[in-house]
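SAMPLE LOG
Freezer: B-3
Tube label: C17
Construct: single chain, 299 aa
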Amino acid sequence: MKTAIKGSRARRAAAVAVTAGAVLATGALTAAPAQAVTTPTITAKGGFLMNSATGKTLFTKAADTKRLTASTTKVMTAKVVLSQSNLNLDTKVTIKKAVSDYIVSKGASSAGLIVGDKVTVRQLLYGMMLPSGCDAAMALADKFGSGSTVSARTKNFISKMNTMAKSLGMTNTHFDSFDGISNGSNYSTPRDLTKVARSVMKSSTFKTVVKTKKYTAKTITKTGSTRTMAAWNNTNTLLGWNGTLGIKTGSGTEAKYCLVFAATLNGESVMGAVMTAPNATDRTADVKKLINYGYAKIS
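STRUCTURE (predicted):
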């Protein structure tokens, strides 16, 4: 009898030990990934990262501090264009002298568009997003703004950008340009830039454009002949790295180096922005850290 009791106790003790071991093992397995994922340190003054599938925040660094956006502004320019009702991407836009004059006066980045050439809206999106052409951005703003002059139309287009920002909940954002060449009041935050990125990445056209490494446009000249433009190379050198899908670089004397990015790997999607990184090399390193961190946090 005593032997039976002892045996029973031994079995119960063993069962408790096994159960406790399983709990410990389960706890260890659950806790390990969280402990293993170290929050990265980035050189950029501002940064934000989200799980783009759920919208959950994964990383912040001064995520709501207003900063100059440089050419990441063009993400919003594209969003406004692609939100036009009955948009025909094959509509041709004639490049005006005002566009050329603007590029020269500002010393702005250019897609090399030629006055008098007819360029489609689709081609202008490539010209704006790949080589960061301010000429393409202005041509789009002039096309889709309302007014009787180029100045009035581009100003109206910028107001549409600000209306769109409000509708997307970008509470710390204001635009005063269509290309990021600030007139004193062109700013956003890493969190806000990620909001517009998440919205516009729902457009298949936008996704196709920003993941393209090189694009060659064929435009129509004044005489009706076809002009094959010099290839436009994407300024985003991260494309294709670890699932990177885009979206837009930006740089300027005051803005320093910015990048709005999106990446998907093995079904895990992240999206974010870094602003005011000290140089292009550090900007790239920052984004790589955030993408890897995001994947690890989601998995």
